[in-house]
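User: quick one, fold this
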Amino acid sequence: MKNEWTEQDLRQFVESSRPVFQDVSLTQVDEDADRCWQDDGLMVDYELRGGQVDCVLRRCVVADGKVWQLQMTAPLAGSDLPEDRMTPREREMCRDDMNHDFVTGVFNRRYYETEFCTKLDEWTDCHRCAALALVSIDGAEKLSARESDAVMGQLVCFVANQWKKHFDQPAERVVCRLSDTLFAIGCADRTRRELEEELKAIYAEMPKECVASVGLMRRVPFTQSIGVAGTREVRCKNWDALYDLCEKRLTAAQAAGGDRIYDGE
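Assistant:
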């Protein structure tokens, strides 16, 4: 910028800059503002506006005995949110991916805590019952110490797919991987006892060995423990209490030696 500016020069500069910048403004400020700036100093700032990062350039200029603040704003390249660059179909697929466990392909904890718990609310409002089961691979710590990560990954995928054969109806009958070897099975229109009986029948027919194809092919034996609870056993849509009840029964099944579905109480 040239050393001697007039107010007219500044206003012409503003008009000529508008096609280049997202926003250009010229504001008269008091003389004290000019003392806060170094000579010919340019202040650079970054601001988040509506999910977009803008670069803001500010400079104080003395013209015709007055102090003017020139401000120019432009978005940083590629700073808009990823979802803003997606088509509706891509956005739907992205959100669907966020609800699935990338190792096993079944639903994940995020789905359980958002979508499934929301469904529990809806079913309860419609006077429909539902049941939840927690399923754990027995002796997971010992298995992990003995087997490689690759073998454990195959085992977890095998177990997940065995349950997915029977519980693969989104929002009605689902299986979710909550942690390394812990799964949740949710089912609408089932009481606790009804889901227990169904799981017993499925588990009785389920293979108790996984063929590991890492290195030399071999069979890895495993068992599972399961605890089940129904929505009618808790009050006021307290789904944390429902989970805790499942967890309590799962722990009891494990304490009894595992390889079983807890059916006490």
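User: anything notable?
Assistant: Confidence is low (pLDDT under 50) at residues 35-40.
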